[in-house]
Structures are given as C-alpha cells and as structure tokens.
Design goal:
By secondary structure, the chain is of the alpha+beta class. A hairpin with a 2-residue loop joins strand 11 and strand 12. Helix 1 packs antiparallel against helix 2, helix 1 packs parallel to helix 3 and helix 2 packs antiparallel against helix 3. It starts with a strand and ends with a strand.
Length: about 425
C-alpha cells in the first residue's frame, strides 16, 4: 500500500515518529543525568564508570545538538499535517525536554554550587581582615609571597593566579583537607582550571584549553587529550595567618569575593567534614578515614605522619628514601614544615629547644653535634652553623582516606 507523506513523514508513521522522538529526547537527558549521578560526593567512583561518565560529558555538546535537531525536525514535519492533538502535545513536550537537557549539559553544576573566582583580588598583609589563628595556603616564589585563606579557598576550591610571573593554580579540597599549589604550564601551554566534580572524595579539575580532567591530590590528568600528563608541584605551606604575616610582612593576601563571602566556610568546618561519610575503606589499616596526616613523598617513596603525633612531639626525626628528615612544629604550635636533616657536609640530629628558651627568640630546635639553634625557616640563627639553612621538602596535609587512596604503597609513621 502506498503511503502519503507530508514534510518527509508518512501519515501512518506518527507512532514511529513519536518513538524516535522519545529516543532522541532521552539521549540529552542521559547526557545530563549520568555525569551528575556518577561524579558526585559521597559515592564510590570506579575507574571505568568514571571514565564512562567523563566520556558522556565530553560528548554531550555535539550529541545533544544532533538529538535536538532530530526532535525538532520531527516536530515541524508532524505539525505540517493533520495529526492527533495528543501526538502534537507529546512531540512538543519531548522537544522541550530535549532542548532544556541539551542546554543544561553546558552548565557546570559544581560552579553553581561553588562559584569560581575569575579575577582574584589581593590586599596587603598588614591590612588584611584575617584572624591571626586562621590558616592560609602560602606560596613564595622569589621575593613575591601570596597567601590564600583556607576559609575562602574551601568555597572556591581553585584560584588561578600568577606569582612572580609563574602561572599557578592554588587549590583546596575541604572534603579531603588537601591544599596544593600547581604550576599551570604544561608543554609550554598555560592552562586555566575550573572545578569539574569529585572522585572518591577528592576534587576534579578541568582545564579550559583541552578539556582534560585532573586529580587535585596528584596533579595528574586522568581523562582527555592530556591524560597521563603531570602538573609540577609548587611548594606551599599551610600556616596560621599570624605566623605567615610575621614571615612575609610585605606579602599579599587573597581578598574575599564579595558576592559569595557569606557562603564561605565557617571556622569549625573541619568538625563538620569529619562527620561526612567516606567511600574509601580504611578499616584494614586501623586508622580512621578522617585522621589528618602530613604526607611526604621522596624518591618515589611515600610516608604519612599523623598530625596529632607531630604536634605532640614538636619535632620528629625520621628517614625516608634513605634520607634523614626533620618535621618541625612552628612557634604558633599549629604550623608544620619538613626539612632535610643535614647540611651539605653532614647529617644532623635535632632536639627541641625548651619552651622557656623559645620565649627569648625564634629558636625551636638545636642540633646535637654543634648545639646550633635553628628557627622555623630551617636556618641556624645561633652557634657554629649560624647562617646555614636546611632544604625544605614538599609536604601537605591530607585526610588518611585520600592520602591512602592516591598513595596505596605509603608507609605510616607510628610512635
């Protein structure tokens, strides 16, 4: 039997057209829902399902566009001929669903929840409205020092900045307590990072230039054209603002982004985060998932030091990758730094300076060999080795579940 057609669709094909339109509308919905469902907090993300969700999100712009065009073509074709009212209403609804879903796939829901700070503003250290015991993520490159208050960073997560002509990304993930600073230059190209989701409790970042996805805790690209690339770590400190201001009186401090200042983290944010569920099982280690660690990696070997143990001991001397290190608590009894425990000539053994003696100066430890006194900058300020400075090592705080997840062969310091 010959079928009449108007606008490319036969009269008897209305049912087929509806089913085809339904499928075409379903694809944009799936492109919207799958990434949101998979890449969300407080659920375990397997490597394959994460890769699938990221692939769907990357393909969504062109895939949804094709589907929307198909649905609209069917709608306009049907509207040009006599078709049942219910069929027309259904097609209009499907077209609306497809169009809205396609538009929403272009929206970064994580940046709606945590707005970016595209033009970071800074003020002088001496005039910054930051409490002395509030913590900052501190960076110094050459003579230029920037401080990023943790209460601000915990909301924005990423601040793209430039310090002494070096493009950097200051990052902070409150769910895992990880504050890290990365060089934004990869293969000669300067990248601009945005918040892209969560992976087993740690933030994901996306660079605008290639769309690659990067893990905040490791600085490694896990998806996209730059998969396998590694960002270069910029040494940073997590210090109290009062201590940082004393060390860097001419430094610059990140100011609040006024429209979102009321949404910044409260000072007791750690107590709230410690009550949140985690998706990495730490039961076999005997260590609670939210135990705060100081993580250190040297020559491919990683080790985690419980921050409570460090603060109680004031000084911990240990070995990692065959090298002697010393972990030192600052004069604020909160900040921590790690140094190689040797000069260029010989290893050193350190002991804490008595509290009564600390009050008379900046000396926090002395070496047993020469009795030289050393400060929190790792420099000898009195004694035979006065003027010598230790090499500071990269170390960062991290909740145990996150450090263990990204450093599966890590050792743990036990007192």
């Amino acid at each position: 039997m010959q079928q009449s057609s108007v606008g490319g669709i036969g009269k008897s094909d209305a049912s087929t057209a509806l089913w085809f339109a339904f499928v075409c509308a379903l694809v944009p919905v799936a492109c919207l829902v799958i990434p949101i469902y998979v890449i969300r907090p407080f659920r375990r993300q397997g490597a394959r399902e994460l890769a699938f969700a990221l692939t769907v999100r990357a393909a969504a712009p062109w895939l949804t566009a094709v589907c929307v065009i198909a649905v609209l073509w069917i709608l306009f074709s049907v509207l040009r001929r006599k078709t049942g009212t219910l069929a027309r209403i259904a097609l209009v609804a499907l077209s609306f669903i497809a169009l809205i879903s396609a538009v929403l796939t272009h929206v970064n829901i994580f940046e709606i929840m945590f707005h970016p700070y595209p033009s970071p503003a800074f003020g002088e250290a001496g005039t910054a409205k930051v409490d002395a015991d509030d913590r900052v993520l501190a960076v110094r490159i050459g003579a230029v020092a920037h401080a990023y208050p943790v209460l601000i960073m915990g909301y924005h997560h990423i601040v793209n900045d430039q310090v002494a002509d070096v493009p950097i990304a200051a990052t902070y993930c409150t769910l895992c307590h990880a504050g890290l600073v990365w060089n934004r230059v990869v293969d000669g190209k300067t990248l601009y990072f945005r918040l892209a989701g969560i992976n087993n409790g740690n933030a994901l970042m996306r660079d605008e230039q290639t769309g690659s996805i990067w893990q905040q805790s490791t600085g490694q690209a896990i998806f996209g054209p730059l998969k396998g690339s590694q960002l270069k770590l910029i040494r940073s400190d997590e210090l109290t603002f009062g201590l940082w201001r004393k060390e860097q009186p001419h430094g610059l401090v990140l100011r609040p982004d006024a429209p979102y200042a009321t949404e910044y983290e409260s000072r007791d944010w750690e107590a709230h985060v410690e009550k949140t569920p985690t998706v990495v099982d730490t039961g076999r280690t005997g260590i609670l998932p939210h135990a705060l660690m100081l993580g250190l990696t040297a020559s491919g070997q990683s080790k985690a030091y419980p921050v409570k143990s460090i603060l109680a001991a004031k000084i911990i001397q240990d070995r990692i990758a065959g090298d002697s290190i010393v972990i030192l608590v600052g004069p604020d009894h909160t900040s921590v730094r790690v140094f190689q425990a040797r000069t260029s000539e010989e290893p050193l053994t350190f002991l804490p300076v008595a509290d009564a003696d600390q009050s008379s100066g900046d000396g926090l430890m002395y070496d047993a060999g020469t009795a030289s006194v050393w400060n929190f900058q790792g420099c000898a300020i009195r004694g035979q080795l006065a003027g010598h400075c230790l090499v500071q090592l990269d170390a960062s705080k991290d909740y145990w579940f996150d450090w263990m997840n990204h450093h599966p062969t890590t050792a743990v310091f036990r007192n």
